[in-house]
Design brief:
The protein has 24 helices and 44 strands.
């Protein structure tokens, strides 16, 4: 493969520099290079430097002189550009120009239509990793597409394949119709491309989630380093290519702002400075975006206004979508103000012709012109290491430039010409003729009326005779006109063709009649054009709705800040041996509980009268699937220990706010139950408005999700399930197999680290095995999805054999049957209060389960596993009082202190105790009452939910909606394009949610 690439390089690239050596068999060799002088123009030699009445002297494909005092040599073609402005042609670093798009491989229905093995040999074990793909081997120059790009100012693009998590290399080439690829291609391998999306052309199941893509990327980096040092016994063409591509520009198509932060995180881990393609919503997380230090590729696709003229349909549009319509055009202004480096792309535009319109809109909304120009010229040239050739106009650079009628960013400005490598494309003549008007047309001595209307550069002709109108098609290439006129004889299908030239307010030429005879025709102007050009409307910039944290409904005007708070005269549910304290004060300072007692005073504290109210520790949901992006399951393999929910925390999930309103302050975000060994968990605090990084409790002990039962053996995945295991016996064997591998892996590394041999071979670093070794060494703890007593027993016995302990059985609806064995093993049970009967293996569930397990000495908690139930976990805890005669304090501990103990964070959370984190909830009455309302939810001394403020928030939401609805109506009234209102669908994850498209 490498030899092939080398030979291809010789055959393909040498002609770039050696075309003169090719035999000339079709005529006499000519080495003539055209010399052209463009004079009297305003020239932007760079985004910040302008020359007036300047001359550009071209020879061949290069600028040989540029300035205001240029002596024009003899025998030079002179183009007078008086009144015109010249800019460097644009560069797009993110294009699929010329790339073939093979049809997607059909996947059929569900996981059963997928493959669990790669389709290739000699390459990486995963088909979605394709660094060996070379764009320059797969491009076809498309003259029509090139013309479209030149029309909007582009002269050079990086073309790449966007299919796959690692999608291969891109090439840099020009949009030069006049030459061939030997001249066009400036660099055949300039970039390596990444996405989080799997290949459309592979059926391989893994990865099936965003977190799976991130884990796979990490493993590739580890494998590439290991491979590069010669540790592999076999050849891997993908890793070969990946290592060769590391010195290229690394471009990551991340899309959404949170994904951009995720891409930057991976880059930081492996010392890679990605050029990150965003989606236009970076302004919503500008502080975090700024901290990445990355350069961003920003599309100029702004959302169309929603047609809200129907008030019923207007309610279908979420506040989030309305705000994005209002705020998105300000994105580039905000990036510029925050000194975030960025370039621009036309790649996401539905209609490429809208590029200049959208660019001018961004400038009208506050993007400085010089920043806009730099983002299209000098910055991409610098990133490509092509500043000597592209991006600015100077002696020696390629003759790539556009000529406009004036300031590029003014809406009336016309783009006249685009020169690429010295080759001229005329888009609109400098002083184009206006032939519009009404004419007396004479053909074969018969009089007609000819009306020419429409745009001056693209006129439309209509021919009439008395009241009869003739269908006419028009082609106008100033000053030439071609008219195709259909016969009015319904029995014939004949046409008359008029070819002529426009001069001195008249047309004349020849007409080819239906019978083929050729005669002269003429048309004299009778009445000049009366249609006035539509005045170009100035872009009216609407009031920008303030950015919220997060920028969705119920977001905060600013990030909430820590306070010193003093609760007076509360009924305090301590969760400790002190029990419930009446008329007690609690002082919170610096995010901690610092005093509990009576008659407490606090300097500078905000006092909250809690008389008649109840203060508790915040609820901890031990099993949650809220706040997760793009897939809760990585079900593409029977073990996915390498993935982690920490990678995909969604800080903008509205369920965070809803949970806060139900008194939840922390949640253990778990992987689903698609495989026996699932992914790692993320323990977060529900800090609404904060970043995923800030929500994550990094010091908390680390957990992983295991699963038993119907889900992991694919009982409910339809017929023909193909992945091992397919039985409960097979589930046990999966555990045996992987823990045996983990022991061998650990031994291999210990042997390597102890060896002093200079020829020792370093073992492969395997993220999945590293995690399993953590379990064996009691550094990571298992939460296991479970139902049936036989499997519960099996896993405890297996853990005993491998000398570790299961920390928690979750669901555990047959826990009451084996509670004594659970207590002996030391495993806790996190269960539902009264769910049963929702699938076959739940048929023996009873609502007394929690009380019965606790009675046998099992540490018990109540969890939600559901975005809706988690809002009322206080009531779920109260059910155990009814069903199990559990005391109210014990019942309350089921959702506070007990989950804290199961998660081993009870040193910080779960009760009201001096020194613990100030994660507390103020209730209107007993938290176990169905009438109790949360009045305040506080995390680390920060108020994240306030019942009183929520009413003001709702009023503000309505105010913002009304403002934007009027803006939308105004936009429609002024002729803006609109889109039909549509409801934003929010996906709720459960343990068995599969195949999220990401």
């Amino acid at each position: 493969m490498r030899n092939f690439i080398h030979v291809f390089f010789i055959l393909f690239v040498i002609p770039l520099f050696a075309q003169d050596y090719f035999p000339k068999n079709d005529g006499v060799r000519q080495n003539f290079k055209s010399k052209i002088a463009i004079t009297n123009a305003t020239v932007y030699v760079s985004p910040t430097q302008k020359l007036e009445k300047a001359t550009i002297l071209l020879e061949g494909d290069r600028i040989v002189e540029i300035g205001t005092n240029i002596t024009i040599p003899k025998n030079v073609t002179v183009i007078d550009a008086t009144g015109k402005t010249i800019y460097s042609s644009f560069i797009d670093l993110y294009s699929e120009f010329g790339m073939a798009k093979p049809p997607a491989t059909p996947r059929g229905g569900g996981m059963n239509a997928t493959s669990y093995e790669p389709s290739r040999q000699g390459y990486y074990w995963n088909d979605h990793i394709k660094p060996e793909y070379q764009a320059f081997e797969n491009v076809t120059y498309d003259a029509k597409s090139a013309a479209g790009l030149r029309e909007i100012g582009f002269g050079t693009v990086v073309s790449h394949n966007s299919d796959g998590i690692i999608a291969g290399t891109g090439l840099l080439w020009t949009l030069n119709d006049a030459d061939n690829n030997a001249t066009r291609i400036l660099n055949q391998k300039v970039s390596q491309h990444f996405t989080f999306r799997r290949s459309r052309n592979s059926r391989q199941a893994y990865p099936s989630s965003l977190m799976g893509s991130m884990a796979l990327l990490r493993q590739v980096y580890h494998d590439a380093e290991w491979y590069e040092k010669g540790n592999s016994k076999t050849v891997d063409l993908s890793l070969d290519a990946f290592n060769q591509n590391k010195k290229l520009l690394q471009i990551f198509n991340a899309g959404d702002k949170l994904n951009a932060l995720r891409a930057a995180t991976i880059g930081k881990e492996f010392g890679v400075n990605y050029l990150i393609k965003g989606s236009g919503n970076e302004f919503e997380r500008i502080e975090e975006i700024k901290k990445t230090g990355a350069t961003y590729i920003i599309p100029l696709e702004f959302p169309e206004a929603y047609d809200v003229s129907n008030s019923f349909l207007a309610y279908q549009v979420s506040l989030t979508d309305m705000k994005f319509w209002n705020q998105a055009p300000f994105n580039l202004k905000i990036l510029a103000e925050n000194n975030v480096n960025f370039i621009l792309t036309a790649s996401d535009l539905k209609n490429q012709k809208e590029f200049l319109t959208q660019l001018r809109k961004a400038v009208a909304y506050g993007l400085p012109k010089e920043k806009a120009l730099a983002a299209l010229t000098t910055i991409p040239a610098q990133l490509l290491n092509q500043s000597a050739n592209l991006g600015s106009l100077k002696k020696g650079s390629l003759a790539n430039f556009i000529i406009t009628s004036g300031d590029l960013f003014e809406s009336k400005t016309i783009l006249h010409e685009n020169w690429v490598q010295g080759n001229r494309t005329i888009l609109s003549k400098f002083d184009g003729l206006d032939s519009r008007g009404t004419y007396d047309l004479v053909i074969n001595q018969i009089n007609y009326e000819l009306k020419i209307e429409g745009e001056a550069a693209k006129p439309e002709a209509k021919i009439t005779k008395d009241s009869i109108s003739f269908d006419t098609k028009t082609q106008f290439n100033d000053p030439w006109i071609n008219l195709l006129v259909k016969s009015k004889d319904t029995t014939a299908k004949g046409y008359m063709r008029l070819n002529g030239v426009f001069d001195n307010a008249a047309f004349k030429g020849t007409a080819t009649l239906e019978d083929g005879s050729v005669i002269p025709w003429s048309a004299k102007l009778k009445e000049p054009n009366k249609v006035k050009e539509k005045p170009t409307e100035e872009i009216v910039v609407p009031e920008m709705v303030p950015i919220a944290y997060p920028n969705v409904a119920f977001g905060n005007k600013e990030k909430p800040k820590q306070e010193t708070l003093l609760f007076k005269n509360a009924t305090v549910w301590t969760g400790e041996s002190e029990g419930i304290l009446k008329e007690t004060d609690v002082l919170i300072q610096n995010g901690k509980i610092i005093r509990i007692g009576k008659n407490i005073s606090g300097a500078n504290a905000k006092t909250i009268d809690a008389t008649g109210k109840h203060l508790t520790a915040g609820i901890i949901d031990e099993h949650s699937h809220i706040a997760i992006s793009s897939g809760v399951n990585e079900g593409g393999q029977n073990s996915s220990a390498e993935v982690t929910i920490e990678d995909v925390i969604n800080s903008e999930d509205i369920n965070i706010y809803r949970n806060l309103s139900g008194g939840v302050t922390s949640a253990n975000l778990l992987h689903g139950s698609a495989n026996p060994i699932g992914g790692r968990a993320a323990f977060i605090k529900l800090k609404w408005g904060y970043s995923p990084e800030e929500m994550l409790v990094k010091e908390a002990p680390k957990y992983i999700k295991f699963a038993l039962g119907e889900n992991v053996k694919q009982s409910n995945w339809g017929t023909g399930g193909s992945r091992f295991p397919q039985s409960r016996m097979g589930v046990e064997q999966v555990y045996e197999d992987y823990f045996t591998q983990a022991l061998a892996y650990e031994k291999e590394w210990k042997t390597y680290n102890a060896s002093k041999s200079k020829t020792k071979i370093k073992p492969r670093y395997d993220i999945e095995m590293e995690v399993l070794v953590e379990i064996l060494n009691k550094k990571r703890f298992i939460t296991c999805h479970s139902y049936v007593q036989s499997e519960i027993n099996m896993l405890m016995k297996l853990a005993d054999r491998y000398q570790f302990k299961i920390q928690t059985f979750t669901h555990i609806l047959e826990g009451y049957k084996v509670a004594d064995k659970m207590a002996a093993h030391g495993v806790g049970g996190s269960t539902f209060s009264d769910w049963w009967g929702y699938k076959f293996e739940v048929k023996d569930a009873i609502p007394h389960n929690a009380a019965l397990m606790q009675g046998e000495g099992v540490l018990v908690s109540i969890n939600s596993d559901d975005a809706e139930m988690s809002r009322r976990l206080n009531q779920e805890a109260a059910k155990t009082v009814k069903y199990g005669n559990v005391s109210e304090e014990e019942a309350w501990n089921f959702v506070t202190l007990n989950p804290a103990r199961l998660l081993q964070v009870d040193n910080r959370l779960g009760s009201i105790k001096v020194g613990k984190d100030a994660d507390v909830v103020l209730w209107s009455e007993s938290p176990l009452s169905i009438y109790a309302k949360v009045e305040k939810t506080i995390i680390d001394g920060i108020v994240f939910y306030d019942l009183e403020q929520s009413e003001a928030i709702i009023e503000n939401i309505q105010k913002e909606r009304n403002l934007m609805i009027n803006q939308l109506l105004d936009a429609k009234n002024k002729g803006s394009k609109t889109q039909t209102p549509k409801r934003r669908e929010v996906k709720h994850y459960h343990c068995d949610t599969l195949l999220e498209e990401f």
